[in-house]
Amino acid sequence: MTPTWERDTFLAAVGDAVWAPSIHNSQPWRFRYTREGVDVLVDPGRVLAACDPDGRAARVSCGAAAYTLRLALAAAGEPAQYTIGRDGVAARLTPGRTRRATPAELRLHRQIRRRHTNRFPFADNPVEPAALAALADAAGQEGGWLQFVTGEADLNGVAELIRGADGRLSADPAYVAELSAWSRGADHRVEGVHPEAAGDAPHPAELLHRRDFGGPEHDATRDPTHAPLVAVLGVHGDGPADEVRAGMALQRVLLCAADLGLAVAMFSQPIEVPAAREGLRRLLDRPHLPQMVLRFGYAPTTCYTNRRPVADVVEP
Ligand SMILES: Cc1cc2nc3c(=O)[nH]c(=O)nc-3n(C[C@H](O)[C@H](O)[C@H](O)COP(=O)(O)O)c2cc1C
Known about the structure:
The protein is built from 9 helices and 9 strands. The protein is an alpha+beta fold. It has 2 domains: 7-114, NADH Oxidase; 129-297, NADH Oxidase, CATH 3.40.109.10. Helix 1 crosses helix 2, helix 3 (103-110) crosses helix 7 (240-259) and helix 4 (129-141) packs antiparallel against helix 7. The radius of gyration is 19 Å and the shape is globular. Bound molecules: flavin mononucleotide (FMN). This is Nitroreductase.
């Protein structure tokens, strides 16, 4: 049996992995150091009961963390092999053959702590076609797909699904209380979405209705989501393991975007409402359910959210 990574290598890689995106910055993951390698586990105590009753978003978040862990290990010259969804483990990493990191891995690795979700207005200039191809390729490399939504009718259709889903979710007091606890009420030193990362409060007139993380009220002079480049991400299956894979594809796309100098916003409200999710699947004419709606563009760096320390997320 190949011995596992040195503990310091493991801890350094987890130090990178925690910078993965997660639903409401809930960081619903744990990392277990074993004799064979590293297990990435869903932390059941951090699954969001109101907005994620089935744990789907937690599995996506864990997939994003597992991809980041893989990238960190590859950048250290000690890449991992992995399995997904076996023995109740989101992802199990074991040491592969040591090799030098590729320039592409090093570039993506440099983006792990630079990448962030951007809920502010994007510039008007269109995204280069080469960037679109690179983003779709990033999803494909992790077994996913990224479909750009072109044409006014489809874009309006996606916008309607986001708005309708957000309205549905916001009518549930438990959802609103949970969202408030993870935004206004969170301990922003270690978790949750900081009001400064929230962007202005969503305005009824904006095209893509943003989730309300408690940003300041304002007079809408300009729609922060105007002229959007929207894409939907998915994988080739709808089971729990597919959701972990979707998280891997998501994080690879996000890091690729950061490497290309692109800002990204996420909209998962229509993924959280089954009827809206099915509507989105039909609109895209896909055999499988979508996993995330993304908006890309050029924009200045905004506010970073924080993370819990490594000691809080590793199993003894
Ligand atoms: C499964 C999932 C769903 C998300 N849904 C949304 C969303 O609907 N709206 C939003 O603004 N951000 C969304 N995010 C982004 C998280 O809020 C963000 O990753 C987290 O707050 C950490 O911040 P960072 O991405 O800037 O590091 C989502 C992230 C994940 C992984």
